[in-house]
Amino acid sequence: MHYPKTVYTLALLLTLLLQNILAQQLTPESVVALRSVRSVALQPQGNYVAYTLTAARTEADAPGGAYLELWVVPVKGGEARAYVRKPNSVSRIAWSPDGRMITYLSKRKDLDARRQVYAIPVDGGESRQLTRAPRDVSKYALSPDGKRVAFIMEDEMPEAIAKAQKRGFDQEVQDTWQVIDRIYVADAAGGKIELVSQNDVHALDLTWSPDGTQIIFRGSERPFVDDDYMHSDNYIVSAGGGTAKKIVDTDGKLELAQMSPDGRHVAWLGAVSYNDPYPHSLFVMPAEGGTPRNLLGDYEGTGEFFHWKDARTLLLVMSENTTRNLYEVSLDDGRFKKVLGGGVIFDDISLSTDRKLLATSASTAVHPDEVFVGALKAQPLRRLTDSNPQLAGMAFGEQETVTWEGADGWSISGILVKPVGYRSGTRYPLQVQVHGGPEAVRLDGWNTGYNRLVQLLAQRGIMVLIPNYRGSTGKGVAFARGDQRDMMGKEFEDILAGIDYLDQQGMIDPQRVGIGGGSYGGYAAAWGATRHS
After folding, report:
1. pLDDT band at 179 (very low <50, low <70, confident <90, very high)
2. Is 267 exposed, middle or buried (0-12, 13-18, 19+ CB in 10 A)?
3. pTM of the predicted protein model
4. Domains and CATH numbers, the chain
């Protein structure tokens, strides 16, 4: 007579237990909803960090990527405060030199016809529009004194394209019409917009010289995709207007140049040749002209971001194998001195005016990017934000760097994520997650996203291998070029060798191996599902 009640009670307990277990696991929906710090900007005086924070779109929103909200957090610690929330989205955040205003790019929903530059007071108040450009502003930079705004704006669209866009044509058809993006300058307090670059150079990014008299920009002779990737150069032009002058004629990919604080040198990240797939190397040369000097040489790492610390020293963020490190690089002797690394995977850094404090976004194996701060020579960095409190207490798979012998005896590394509750001697199903590019690298930080369900799989008993096969970055130029003229040859053998390595270690069931990836990783997945299935 009492059995039904006992059965119902047991069923209820099991249901509640199952709900609790599921609540402690990631789902595809919860992965998409995760928030991540993207860019950070440290106030010049070092009291606050402004940052952008992702906010996922819902089914009710228009199609597009995640919103980027503007937030500010005190360096000493305390509650973060939102300044711009979705459905508005911001980009290119920066501080005014006096630290009183945060500037950003935005096209405010239902208010703006074009993307403009705005400034919002750090102590509260409404945003003020700094530019009134007739067309979208794509990039901008405040002058060193904060009184002027240099920005990039495209020429008017051909009439046929403009009419099509008004009818709702929103596709981006590359290289079908030639519309130049040019540099303009406006007074930050409002005023007339002045054209800066008089010649037809397509502007891609820009910055000011330290004395505010010149603008350095990356540009190309034609406004086409391949010219952006492969045929751009760095130029310099008077902020008062004139003909842009090419700083140096280089081959291959390169990034925006930055002038030293004393105006005597320029530095940039670039490729060593036209066939170098990534702008890994750090170059420097006299501002008045000369032969560029590659400060990295044959170093087996990849330059990602750099800043001038002083007139004779550069700060370089490098990817090295599966880690990120920060180095001081001396112009005098070219020596490298490691000042930060280990513990977290950080992105670009933002520095205080006195160069004593830095802020960055950084992740760990078990948490997406958050805001971190620290003294330039102190470790570890201190975390200021917690944008995903729901992850606290959740079990994640143990993550580590593994190395195996690939094709031709090359040393290949990757990220291995073990299933939650991993037991040595047990063979698990394996998912191989191949990154795209192939000029890219996966690091020992947070590797889970809407298109990489790494920890979601680990929580469900599946091992995940993320190989940095030849052609990846993080190991220097020679390694990044190792796959050329051999598509899905030895680079795919490197991936297969990683699977064999895990099999030899008794960690995986070789009969239950899946493969996936996006872009070039999708090509690898198709290769694995056909020829190597």
Report:
1. confident
2. buried
3. 0.92
4. 399-530 (3.40.50.1820)
